[in-house]
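Support reply, case 0932

Customer input (verbatim):
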Amino acid sequence: MLASAALFIFCDALSAHWGRTDSHRSLAALLVLAPFSYFLFALITRQVGLAVAGALVNSVVVAGAIVIGVLVFGEELSRTQFAGVAMAFAAVTLLNLS
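Our regenerated output:
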């Protein structure tokens, strides 16, 4: 699950970098890596079903994209947004308990 989410996050960062810089290398890497993200997601879905896989992976992707946005792109979170990230981490934890 984490590998799939990490690939999705990396692809999100590549697409953001491509959007900001028009870097052809970022676009090429994105086009190569994106199918692997979906392949890993499909493998997860076979194990736990679409509802749980989607909730887990998407929650981690959102939280990871926020971390990348803050650390790499210098974006800032409001207190409300930070509380939302904390809730996403709590949701992932609760989904993994069942």
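We compared this against your earlier run and they match. Two observations from our side: The chain has one domain: 2-97. The longest helix spans residues 24-48. Please reopen the case if you see a mismatch on your end.
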